[in-house]
Write a structure and sequence with these properties.
Blueprint: E1 2-12, H1 15-46, H2 52-57, H3 59-65, H4 75-98, E2 115-118, E3 125-127, E4 137-141, E5 145-150, E6 158-167, E7 170-181, E8 191-196, E9 200-204, E10 209-211, H5 215-218, H6 220-231, H7 238-272, E11 275-279, H8 283-286, H9 301-314, H10 316-330, E12 333-337, E13 362-364, E14 371-373, H11 374-395
Parallel strand pairs: 8-11, 11-12
Antiparallel strand pairs: 1-5, 1-7, 2-6, 3-4, 4-5, 6-7, 8-9, 9-10, 13-14
Helix pairs in contact: 1-4, 6-7, 7-10
Family: In the C-terminal section; belongs to the transposase 35 family. In the N-terminal section; belongs to the transposase 2 family.
Domain Cas12f1-like TNB: 316-382
Pfam families: Cas12f1-like_TNB, HTH_OrfB_IS605, OrfB_IS605
Length: 396
């Protein structure tokens, strides 16, 4: 049975193609903002709800009135941009219905709109548009031309959608493919529980610790120096734009390093274990600010801010997402369990108390005296909880 996967490759556009890609992104951003303004005014002035179908029907007139602008780009890509806005409104109303903080869709400023999607390969775009070329791969984009692709691995399955994304000064093409053949690995018979942490990214119930490289902390001095230089530059100047690009490049390197490390850590787990149990972490809740309000200010704000920065630098969310994708492709079983009290419960006698966690790294049970590394003890509890859920599901 095939799975859905994405393939991301670096683009090598010429200077003219890079300028065309930039203009394509800008025109789609303006289309998104104009569609959002249309919805807001229609509801505020006349109480009319404008939907995707209404706005998509106006695209033909918009393109006819702007032959040197909007009409240069693929009709289907513009429809995808309008669908993107429609999804933002659908998510907004879902949050309202659920009683959460709504977060009304916002206008996209420069730098906050970085992706254009072509929803069907062959409609305004074509992957591998020059298959006869002996050494290079190209993707054709309407209004841009045949752009060279740095293809570092084969594309599997059937290409369904093509997206172009800007990250700093780099351009990438992202292919979403269906029917990608799964690559099941041979069974090992091994099971493992993993505890996510800041000191170690992953600690297993087998007492294996995978360090947290803290890429953001390593780059912190260079980022701070770049931010200081940026503060001294005149707004709107060429030097300021260069400094902004420098900071974006530093953050981009950190992001790529973190992603590469997460892939390697997930590969090691998927290769060695048939069943992997992890904590069902609510990272957005864990990294919520402790500053509070003017009337009710928070406590230990500086410490909480530092902890939040360390959690985000570790990249737990990225790692768990990659682990889920690799486990599905390899035919491994992934189980998420409630992490409550796993770090305070003794893996020997089951006694649960706050005092059991003597320090961040040391666990010593106050009931039976069992001593172990705190993260290893938590990983064992996580594994047991996951296996219990698995048995209950099999018995049901």
């Amino acid at each position: 049975m095939g799975v859905r996967r994405s393939f991301k490759f670096l683009l090598r556009p010429t200077s003219k193609q890079a300028a065309a890609l930039t203009q394509c992104l800008e025109d789609h951003r303006q289309l998104y903002n104009a569609a959002l303004e249309h919805r807001r005014i229609a509801y505020r002035k006349a109480g009319v709800t404008v939907r995707y179908g209404d706005q998509a029907g106006e695209l033909k007139h918009i393109r006819a009135d702007d032959p040197e602008g909007q009409s240069r780009w693929s009709f289907s890509s513009q429809q995808a941009t309008l669908r993107r806005l429609d999804k933002a409104f659908a998510a907004f109303f879902a949050r309202v219905k659920a009683g959460r903080t709504p977060g009304f869709p916002r206008f996209k400023g420069r730098g906050w709109f970085d992706t254009v999607e072509w929803p069907k390969d062959g409609d305004g775009c074509r992957w591998d548009s020059q298959p006869q070329h002996p050494t290079a791969t190209y993707v054709r984009l309407q209004g841009v031309g045949h752009v060279r692709v740095h293809q570092h691995r084969p594309v599997l399955g059937t290409v369904k959608t093509v997206s172009v994304k800007r990250e700093g000064s780099r351009w990438y093409v992202v292919l979403s493919c269906d029917d990608v053949p799964a690559e099941p690995l041979p069974a090992t018979g091994a099971v493992v529980g993993i505890d996510m942490g800041v000191a170690s990214l992953v600690t297993t119930s087998d007492n294996v610790h995978r360090e947290n490289p803290r890429y953001l902390a390593v780059a912190a001095d260079r980022l701070a120096a770049a931010q200081r230089d940026l503060a001294r530059k005149k707004p709107g100047s060429k030097r300021r734009r260069k400094e902004v690009a420098r900071i974006a490049a530093l953050h981009g390197k950190v992001r790529r390093q973190r992603l590469d490390y997460a892939h390697k850590a997930a590969n090691a787990l998927v290769r060695d274990y048939d069943v992997i149990v992890h904590e069902d972490l609510r990272i957005s809740n864990m990294t919520r600010s402790a500053s509070g309000t003017i009337e009710a200010p928070g406590r230990n704000v500086a410490q909480k801010s530092g902890l939040n920065r360390s959690i985000l630098d570790a990249g737990w969310g990225v790692f768990l997402q990659i682990l889920a994708h690799k486990a599905e492709s390899a035919g491994r079983e992934l189980i998420a369990v409630n992490p409550a009290s796993t770090s305070r419960t003794c893996s020997c006698c089951g006694h649960c108390a706050k005092e059991n966690r003597a320090t961040q790294a040391e666990f010593r049970c106050t009931a039976c005296g069992h001593a172990a590394h705190a993260d290893v003890n938590a990983a064992i509890n996580i594994l047991r909880a996951g296996l219990a859920l698995r048995r209950a599901a099999e018995a049901a």
